[in-house]
Amino acid sequence: FDAVRKRRLPAFPRRIGVVTSPTGAAIRDFLQVMKRRWRGIEVLVFPARVQGDCAADEIVAGIRAANRVTPAIDVLVVTRGGGSLEDLWCFNEESVVRALAASGVPTVSAIGHEIDVTLADLVADVRALTPSEGAERVVPSTDDVNDMVRGLGLRLGTAMATRVAQVRSRLDSLASRPALSRPLEGVHLRGRRLDELSLRLDGAAKSLLRERQSAIGAVAGKLETLSPLGVLGRGYSLTYAVDDQRLITSANKLRAGQRLVTRFQQGTATSVVETISKDEL
User: Fold this and answer.
1) In the sheet where 75-80 sits, what is the strand order?
2) FRET label pair with 279: which of 69, 150, 210, 261, CA 20 to 30 Å apart?
3) CATH assignment of the domain containing 68
4) Range 100-134 burial, b when 16+ CB lie within 10 A, else e
5) What does the mean pLDDT of the chain come to?
6) Burial of 50 (0-12, 13-18, 19+ CB in 10 A)
7) Is residue 244 part of a domain?
8) What predicted TM-score, i.e. pTM, was given to this entire model?
9) Which of 108, 143, 178 is the last residue of a domain?
10) Which band of pLDDT confidence, cut at 50, 70 and 90, is reported for residue 231?
11) Residue 132: which domain range?
12) pLDDT: is 98 or 250 the higher one?
């Protein structure tokens, strides 16, 4: 009886087993409602008396037979129409209750009328108040399924339209970007920027060259001022002794007959000392 043991019924069963009297009103009501709600389901009836002394044993046999059938059924219904307490007592028998509890497939108890409650109702996975409601609990309604499919179709269409609109908006946004709408504009902008940088680089290089040339000219002027050749250019000359290449800076260092080399700004001359005049300061 524990609710934790209750199993859910399959949403779309293909084979249904029914334990009931094959001649009673319950099976007729059950099949009529099921045919109206959903077609194409195979129904296996396991005959059993549903009242009287031997009814409990036949119901148990039917439940066990339904669990052994191949291919297996998807759900098992135990049903009968209304009656007195004595008529329904077989559904309170321990053997019937245990057989339902041991069933390997989900079970539905659809016994009597709304006011009738048996132990079979309490132990079954699902209780239906009448045989007709038992059919309603076992098979879906074609109208309900059609409505659900239409609703899902509408939701799917709406979702797809929304998604398409989002993608189209995204594509439009991308298409409006300059990189796609005017792809050469970026190339031209960067070309102009490159030209500007090239001009600036050329101007900077020329300016730097002029600065370096000016600096080199100033250093060259200083070197020219300090250079002995510059002194020679102003009319001076340098005299060396031929024998030891000493620079002669005083007549006191000369001797008669000594050979000398005199260097001018342009060219040299060789001479021999004939006389020496020593100036007294």
Assistant:
1) 42-47, 15-20, 75-80, 107-111, 126-128
2) 261
3) 3.40.50.261
4) beebebbbbbbbbeeebbbbbbebbbbbbbbbbbb
5) 84
6) buried
7) yes
8) 0.55
9) 143
10) low
11) 3-143
12) 98
